[in-house]
Design a protein that fits this description.
The chain has a single domain (27-107), classed as conserved putative lor/sdh protein from methanococcus maripaludis s2 fold. Helices cover 14% and strands 29% of the residues. It has one helix and six strands; from the N terminus they run ββββββα. It has one helix at 93-107; strands at residues 27-30, 35-37, 40-47, 50-55, 57-61, 65-70. The N and C termini lie far apart (57 Å).
């Protein structure tokens, strides 16, 4: 890198970010939503008031997000934080509220 104007001094520090890849149209979740065990990577999906353990295949990652290449459809609600570990089939409040909203909308003839 040229320093013909002498702007860079020895011992100076810089914070940089280098984009190495860009994926368009990827389904991505917060890094903290992806769990791992002996069987592999999985996420907990909020579905009909219950938590569903869903095995996933991950792709590219950055400091905040992980691309999901298999196992999760765009728009599905993923649990990113829970006060207690969720088990497959356990009830979750977010899913119950969402299910009640959908039921109310259907009753009023809306989607």
């Amino acid at each position: 890198m040229s320093n013909s104007e002498g702007l860079f001094k020895p011992g100076s520090f810089a914070r940089v970010s280098i984009e190495t890849d860009r994926v368009h149209g990827a389904t991505a979740v917060l890094r903290e939503a992806v769990e791992k065990d002996k069987a592999g990577n999985y996420v907990m999906v909020a579905s009909s008031g219950k938590a569903e353990r869903r095995p996933v295949t991950t792709g590219v990652e950055d400091t905040d997000y992980v691309a999901i290449t298999e196992g999760l459809a765009p728009g599905e609600k993923v649990v990113t934080m829970s006060a207690m570990p969720l088990k497959d089939g356990s009830a979750n409040q977010a899913g119950r509220r969402q299910a009640r909203r959908q039921t109310r909308r259907q009753a009023k003839g809306r989607r």
